[in-house]
Specification:
The chain is of the alpha/beta class and 171 residues long. The chain contains five helices and six strands, in the order βαβαβαβαβαβ. It is 43% helix and 15% strand.
């Protein structure tokens, strides 16, 4: 923190040596001492998985990650849409998955955020349709480098589509 002057961090679950609330609480104590706040905690996810068992497992894993995020003091987590680009997307299923996360997250002060991070979310129009179908309290992570485009003009156009739904931007 002193060398780079960073006061806010977004970390990935893989950065933690242990995936437990107790460990996250210890990390937060150290971060608080040096004036660093966690702004987002990146997880994976398959919120659009057509298989109910796979989706339920993914939702349970995201909820575990949300508990860790709460212990870190992070107000949001990345919860990936999943799926494969070009495959059919069931918006009702995807919206229900996020609804379950919002209901849980509301009890611990942590909200899920989809990101243009592979699968269905790679297409900005698809991610916009997902954002319109889910709880308005959920904002998207717009990652400048994750668009599957052929030019900077396409990247800018994709960003413009998603920015009205953005809560966090990675560049």
């Amino acid at each position: 923190r002193e060398e780079l002057g960073l006061t806010q961090l977004e970390i990935i679950i893989n950065h933690l040596d242990e995936r437990t609330v107790a460990y996250a609480e210890r990390v937060r104590v150290v971060a608080d001492k040096v004036g660093v706040k966690f702004i987002n905690f990146q997880l994976g996810g398959q919120m659009s998985a057509p298989d109910p068992a796979a989706r339920a497992k993914s939702i349970a894993e995201i909820k575990d990650g949300m508990r860790i995020a709460a212990a870190l003091g992070a107000p949001t987590v990345r919860a990936d849409v999943g799926g494969r680009a070009g495959e059919p997307l069931d918006l009702t299923t995807t919206a229900d998955s996020y609804k379950q996360l919002v209901e849980f997250g509301s009890t611990i002060g942590v909200m899920p955020m989809p990101e243009n991070h592979g699968g269905h979310s790679t297409d900005p129009d698809t991610l916009v349709s997902i954002m319109k179908a889910i709880d308005p309290r959920i904002r998207a992570i717009v990652d400048w480098g994750n668009f599957r485009v052929e030019s900077q003009a396409q990247r800018i156009d994709a960003s413009r589509k998603l920015l009205p739904h953005a809560g966090l931007v990675s560049a």
